[in-house]
Amino acid sequence: QVQLVESGGGLVQAGGSLRLSCVASGSVGTFNTMGWYRQAPGKQREFVANIMTETTNYADSVKGRFTISRDNAKNTVTLQMNSLKSEDTAVYYCNLRRPLVAPFWGQGIQVTVSS
Q1: How far apart are CA 73 and CA 7, in angstroms?
Q2: pLDDT at residue 101, rounded to an integer
Q3: Residues 30-75: tens digit of each pLDDT
Q4: Which of 19, 24, 91, 105 counts the highest number of beta carbons within 10 A?
Q5: 3-state SS, residue 57
């Protein structure tokens, strides 16, 4: 099993920045993809960004504003969010995927951007 614990959410004004972190523990495996999804009220959960070794992927809506990084030694993934907009308001979920295994999810953390 894998446990994912997110931190760093909160309330910020539009144009501000927040930094989300997620620490993974348990059977994280050697080759995995870690990333972030988000779910706004009344909407489906959507992909934000992920990273596997050095390869990163971003949703078009966050490109140029968000940066994902990871520390393999600490099993940590970080999402630096800059130039935040009100539409970034959502619950953000950490995600870990390993081959041939169902993905793991964190409990979610609230990010609220006030306009």
Answers
A1: 18
A2: 86
A3: 778 999 999 999 999 999 999 998 899 999 999 999 999 999 999 9
A4: 24
A5: strand
List of residues 6+ apart from 64 with CB closer than 8 A: none
pLDDT value of position 28: 82
The b/e string for 31-70 (b: 16+ C-beta within 10 A; e otherwise) is: ebbbbbbbeeeeeeeeebbbbeeeeeebeeebeeebbbeb
**Those residues with Cβ within 8 angstroms of residue 72's Cβ, 6 or more apart along the chain or in another chain:** none
Closest by Cα among 92, 84, 71, 68 to 8: 92
Q: Can you tell me whether residue 115 is helix, strand or coil?
A: coil
Provide the residue type at 25 as one letter: S
Residue with tokens 């614990």: 5
The dihedral region occupied by 83, where left means phi > 0, alpha psi between -120 and 50, and beta the remainder, is left
Q: What is the CA radius of gyration of the chain?
A: 13
Task: Characterize the bridge pairing of strands 76-81 and 18-26.
Answer: antiparallel
DSSP category for residue 87: G
In the prediction, which pLDDT does 31 show?
79
